[in-house]
Amino acid sequence: MLILGIESSCDDTASAIVKDGRTVLSSVVASQDAIHSAYGGVVPELASRRHIEMIIPVVEESLKRAAVSLSDIDAIGVTQGPGLVGSILVGLSFAKAVGYAKKKPFVGVNHISSHALSAFLEDGEKKEVPDFPFVALIVSGGHTALLSVDDYTEFKILGQTRDDSAGEAFDKVAKLLGLGYPGGVEIDKLAKQGDPSVIEFKRPIIAKGSLEFSFSGLKTAVLQKVKGAELNEDTKRNIAAGFQEAIVDVLVEKAMWAIEATGVKNMVVAGGVACNSRLRQRISEVAVKNNIRLFIPPPRFCSDNGAMVALSAYHIIKKKGAGAFGNLNLNADPSLEF
Description:
Layout: E1 2-7, E2 13-19, E3 23-30, H1 33-36, H2 44-66, E4 75-81, H3 85-102, E5 106-110, H4 111-116, E6 134-139, E7 144-151, E8 154-160, H5 166-176, H6 183-191, H7 216-227, H8 233-262, E9 266-270, H9 277-289, E10 293-295, H10 299-302, H11 306-320
Helix pairs in contact: 2-3, 5-6, 5-7, 5-8, 6-8, 7-8, 8-9
């Protein structure tokens, strides 16, 4: 079965062709980093306008790279939420239009659960994949959450952020330090030149054993340091290193608490922040120490992409049947739950 996956929940316009819910034949992503860099974060109106401009060329390119046509596609998967409503509407409206015109079923999928399944994607040789159940740590610009994943279509939220996501905190701190956008990439780069022990930040744990996150206080703590310090290059490096270490400590510790709470020994870490080199290093070390099978997708499948959406859609269709999908009343849901 060939699935066309479309993702437009935030600022990346993405399309992919995936075969049988596993093999990625093509994956195309049009980034908007250059557009939003002047603002230090995503401007929703600009994001949705750019999606309108890019959705057709991105889908056409994904079809071209996979050497297929829309007639060859068996179904369309598209992000229904959560995310920015204007951005979601562009991808969803396009999927509905193509589905109606070409008489193809179209399936709305959850953006966060799609990230959790991204470890199953392959675009080369066969690879080892997680066993069910597993714990998924999803860390991105819009979301930070811990999930229990029992099957391809069965998810339960164990904990999530009460305020800012980890990715949002990275972007805002990068702006405070006068760095570029996206902030996570810039802080990761700068932190490698700093010493996290020089300027330390309190870890926002909330409570022992809690699987919820809160990063707004950490962001405020950085703001106070910036205001009270001579912001030379050495200070910037050490603030970046200290801030990043605090974020990573919280993510790793809570992920381990989730493992203890569920008793499983499989973990997936995904989302844009899963590209962070320090997070990948630390959670890999802890996983080895605790005999946990850890799966972190390559960066191209950690950040937003259409392949993870196609994968999710495949398993939803496989479970319910293609005839259950194609409702033109399907609408964007910026707060979509499982």
